[in-house]
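Practice problem: predict the structure.
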Amino acid sequence: MKRSSIALPVLIALVFIAGAAFSKPNTPPKSFFHALRPTDEIESRSLPAIDLAARLAEDERLRDEPAPYRVAYAIPLRASPEDAGTWETIPGVGSVWRLRVDSPGAVFLSFKFSDFELPAGAELHFISVARRYHDGAYTERHNRPPRRFGSPMVPGDSAIIELFLPEGSEPASLELESVSHGFRDVMGMGAFAPRGGPSAAACESSSALASAAAIGPFGCQRDINCPEGAPYQDVKRAVAEGYDGQYICSGQLINNARQDNRYLYITAEHCEWWIDPSTMAYYWNYENSTCGSNDAPLRFSTGSTDLYHSAAADLQLLELDGTDLEGLYDIYFVGWNRSGETPTSAATIGFPSDKPKQISIRNDPVIDCAAGGCPNGWGPNYWRIDLYDVGVTEAGSSGGMLLDQDNLLVGALTGGVGTNCSNFEWDEYAKIAPQWASLQPFLDPDATGRLWLPGKDHADVPGVPLFSAWGTALYAALLLAAGSIAIRFGRTAGPARE
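Answer:
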């Protein structure tokens, strides 16, 4: 649905207001404002060294299998405010618990909790020891029934977990399960150097080793904001890179027939996010502002729920946590086509080797594996591309959408043969049509039987002409009502990193 230029500024303002009502901005931790112990005087835990060369060799052996792109190794580490860390009191304010974690040589760290339940007023932050990065506050609004939580990446090889409890607060239930040692310079983590502690040299050595193992040249790839990406400027906003503590994959928000902005996210089953979906981090708007500008920002949401996954079809559908992804990330919901008709041209958007959003384009029809022509592939329920006219996929692209000639999703990337521009042979994408019986309850919950559905901007309201005065007024009323409800019940979305 198109919007008029007259209504657009009003809608943008309303979305901003609603976002402010729904979300709590990223706030500095209490240790930034109060005289607490230096970080080298609080209790610390050090992770055991990992044999990075051996781990990379293991990953290399899986290169030709459908597998997500490993960027970190999760190392078990049990700790809680009851048995580790340092407590300090801020008179008249509350108490602060901090634990420093060191993993020499890491490019970044992230944390996974097996128990996560914060009381009212509590604030949880993750801070780089160099204090060039902090993430939070996470509050009781981030509690969810699984009582599990996964943090986004924190740059450097040392990080602080900080918990604040106001005076009179109930205790928090916080049990650290593992720490992920990031060995690849992804999400621009290396830009936050210098890293804390005495292990910077080791970290540089680790980063060099990871770079040496990186997959191939990138000369034929194209940023989504290069000229070739011009026809995809709406649909690109559906795409987010997911991180589960070890692996990254691509994926995207998908529209449903009710067009109610439900945060449905489709990706590849082999990414295995269904195993622990509540601990996921999703990175939004991760793209260069102009062609090759290398300035992609860090913005993320946390948490999700598995709705459907099938190893046989290599498809997974999740629902993301949060209450106002629209206000934070300018999102889009990609449309779909389940007719099974062979696309006359195609494109995919994803994060090959964690490069900010890249576009790969096929100008000719794709191959329908049900009709033959897919030797050594995964079977009839896949589309194959044996040549891209623009770009190429790599590890990290898994789960990225296959778009048909109308920019509608018809499949998600499983994998293929060839790892760079010079040796690419083919990719295959799991079709959504053969899995429709399982996807239909979510993508067409009223069983309308439609074969295709257009994409949708987050600001579009189905059936309401936004260019009309009454349509704009109705939309404003809906947003203000939603904001009022959010304030009443104290709901919030995850933080955005600007």
